[in-house]
Write a structure and sequence with these properties.
- The chain is of the alpha+beta class.
- 44% of the residues lie in helices and 17% in strands.
- It contains 12 helices and 10 strands.
- It has a 5-stranded antiparallel beta sheet with strand order 7-3-10-9-8, with helices on both faces. Strands 4-5-6 form a 3-stranded antiparallel beta sheet.
- α2 crosses α3 and α5 packs across α12.
- 38% of the residues are buried.
Length: 338
Amino acid sequence: MLSERRLKVLRAIVQDYVGTEEPVGSKALTERHNLGVSPATVRNDMAALEDEGFIAQPHTSAGRIPTDKGYRLFVDKLAGVKPMTAPERRAIQNFLEGAVDLDDVVARTVRLLAQLTRQVAVVQYPSLTRSTVRHVELLSLAPARLMLVLITDTGRVEQRMVDCPAPFGEASLADLRARLNSRVAGRRFSDVPGLVEDLPEAFEAEDRGTVSTVLSTLLETLVEENEERLMIGGTANLTRFGHDFPLMIRPVLEALEEQVVLLKLLGEAKDPGVTVRIGHENAHEGLNSTSVVSVGYGSGGEAVAKLGVVGPTRMDYPGTMGAVRAVARYVGQILAES
């Protein structure tokens, strides 16, 4: 375990390196920070931190920079989440409240996160598997053709065409709509199949084929495989940090193009707290020089998806964690009110 004094030295090194982009020397530390000890003691502490792998010497200069291990300790022990100011919170709320639908909410969230953090922003659409049904609408397009509209508690809208085996009258359609919503509205998607399996039996024999077709379409919509969608923005921000990527920026950009990689980076939505993955903690080799800060968002206190940012390991962790958490909270409020 590091002593309290060495933890203070490590915190000062991380703060200075993030702020100045220059390796940090003992003389600069004692001048900038009230560490309460002599430069010689700070040099000894820095030597000990280097021996234990928390800082490293990038080249022959006297300065040191944090390693992944040093950033990890900083995030776990030393970095509080920097709260947003009242004007910042108002600006976030006003910007997101102007959204007209779920796509607009996600697009605005990506833009806002990228601007606030000056990193790459990634937002996962709310997953159907973690959503509940708000309403099912059935519209007649032709005597034997319907449109099924599924609306979720997160504001997601899915539309499907249904070709019926026989004409389906308005009275039967109204009956099906009412019975269907009485069973599934407000229920989790995983519960829906069991709630509707005997529904065709409530209808006349000539209508049961159409009811079964509608239910099949609904269930296919609930379990669709391509439901995981992401939006990404702010990749141009990475060009400002070219010197932070020891090899090239290209592997980072290539990794960010892979949706599967990004979903793994964000992590499971059911983990709602702020998660920070630093450097080599990211399994994808192209992202070993980056850190990912992510958090779950959703309505009613339950996370239905994740959002976060990707940037170089030399990032303002307290500020980034605060921004990501604040934006997630407002997105959740908007979804709850939508």
